[in-house]
């Protein structure tokens, strides 16, 4: 009997991470399943057949994908041929709407069932994407509870499976009553090379200013697995330690983080690490984003809380001086600092329990008529 083939597609480093865990959960539930993948280095390791490293290409934003349209079109057609020739049982897309929306249409024309694990952020901008997803997707598997409400209201089958970060992060450490030297600062400039180029100089300038207030500060930079050490040469020259870890042990011990907006802000929140969030885009992309984004915050911690728990510095506001000033204001107010840690940790309660990838895998296999061996 020919094993079922599932194609899983992610386009950025966080999608690569969660895609790899979904692949392992699927194969644990059905050992005969054949999983092909488009993603990054983690999905390469976990899949049976790896088709393209899309996550490491950094195709993001509004303007940047136009420059690589030829590659993306060819990749889409190549994946359609793959689904037809291999008689794929399903396509599972992970976030990355710009490319995946077109791939979903190609899957539909090929007669392949399509599912979405980890929704694009339609609640932040472009709600018109919901009817498109309703037409092309059989079921959404979402990681925020408010997303389930949104899609079900629109008539699109949807299951909240919990947030996969809860499976990856250690239990938070018991907070110390007061900060004690040396202050441990983490730099998280982003997972893509373009983000690092825009954010790292700002963070290093902020660190330089912060050292005037806390001379014994110890700074480390958490590197993306998709980027080599050379991407962080400027930090190394400033005496910043480069950290590559998969267990979050160093991150969990931080007193404060300078953090690019993205998955890392939620990771910090669930670890109880206070932070100052920055984000800079190319100006054409920023002007488009400002016109269409409807949510009041960019950091997921602030969105989940419904208010500005952590400072956000966007575009021209993202300067080293303002980054340091926001950090000093927080660190020199012990009551505010302690309250922030407590509020960040409370966000764990709204994201469900552990086992998101296992639940998504069981649901996908159930949809395909398989009998999953693992339901957690």
Commentary on this structure:
The structure is a single chain. The chain is of the alpha/beta class. The chain has two domains: 5-164 and 355-367, Glycogen Phosphorylase B (Rossmann fold, 3-Layer(aba) Sandwich); 184-350, 3-Layer(aba) Sandwich (Rossmann fold). The protein has 17 helices and 13 strands. Strands 3-2-1-4-5-6-7 form a seven-stranded parallel sheet, with helices on both faces. It has a six-stranded parallel sheet with strand order 10-9-8-11-12-13, with helices on both faces. Helix 5 links the parallel strand 4 and strand 5 (113-117).
- What best-fitting shape do the alpha-carbon axes yield? globular
Under CATH, the topology of the largest domain can be stated as: Rossmann fold
Low-confidence segments, given as residue ranges, are 371-376
- Topology as H/E string? EHEHEHHEHEHEHEHEHEHEHEHEHHEHHH
Roughly what fraction of the amino acids lie in strands?
Answer: 15-25%
Spatial order of strands in the largest sheet: 3-2-1-4-5-6-7
CATH homologous superfamily of the largest domain? Glycogen Phosphorylase B
Q: First CA to last CA: what distance? A: 28 Å
Number of structural domains: 2
- What class would the helix/strand composition place it in? alpha/beta
Mean pLDDT across residues: 89
Q: Count the strands? A: 13
Largest sheet: 7 strands, parallel
- Count helical runs: 17
Secondary structure: helix percent: 40-55%
């Amino acid at each position: 009997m020919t094993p079922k083939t599932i194609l899983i597609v992610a386009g950025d480093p966080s999608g690569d991470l969660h895609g790899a865990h979904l692949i392992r959960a699927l194969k644990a539930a059905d050992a005969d399943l054949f999983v092909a993948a488009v993603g990054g280095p983690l999905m390469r390791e976990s899949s049976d057949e790896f088709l393209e490293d899309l996550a490491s290409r950094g195709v993001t934003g509004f303007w940047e994908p136009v420059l690589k349209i030829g590659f993306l079109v060819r990749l889409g057609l190549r994946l359609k041929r793959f689904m037809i020739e291999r008689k794929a049982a399903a396509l599972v897309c992970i976030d990355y709407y710009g490319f995946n929306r077109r791939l979903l249409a190609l899957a539909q024309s090929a007669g392949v069932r399509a599912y979405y694990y980890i929704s694009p952020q339609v609640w932040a901008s472009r709600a018109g994407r919901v009817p498109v997803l309703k037409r092309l997707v059989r079921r959404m598997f979402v990681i925020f509870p408010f997303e389930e409400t949104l899609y079900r209201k629109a008539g699109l089958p949807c299951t909240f499976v919990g947030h996969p970060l809860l499976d990856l992060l250690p239990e938070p450490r018991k907070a110390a009553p007061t900060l004690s030297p040396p202050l441990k600062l983490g730099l998280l400039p982003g997972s893509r090379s373009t983000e690092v180029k825009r954010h790292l100089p700002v963070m290093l300038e902020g660190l330089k200013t912060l050292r005037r207030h806390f001379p014994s500060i110890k700074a480390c930079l958490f590197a993306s697995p998709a980027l080599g050490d050379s991407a962080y040469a400027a930090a190394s020259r400033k005496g910043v330690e480069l950290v590559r870890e998969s267990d979050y042990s160093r991150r969990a011990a931080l007193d404060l983080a300078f953090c690019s907006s993205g998955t890392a802000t939620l990771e910090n929140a669930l670890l109880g690490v206070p932070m100052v969030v920055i984000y800079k885009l190319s100006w054409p992309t920023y002007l488009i984003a400002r016109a269409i984004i409807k949510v009041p915050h960019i950091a997921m911690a602030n969105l989940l809380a419904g208010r500005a728990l952590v400072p956000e510095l966007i575009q021209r506001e993202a300067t080293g001086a303002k980054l340091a000033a926001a950090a000093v204001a927080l660190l020199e107010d012990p009551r505010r600092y302690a309250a922030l840690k407590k509020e960040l940790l409370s966000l764990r309660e709204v994201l469900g329990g552990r086992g998101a990838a296992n639940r998504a895998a069981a649901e996908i296999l159930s949809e395909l008529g398989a009998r999953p061996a693992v339901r957690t």
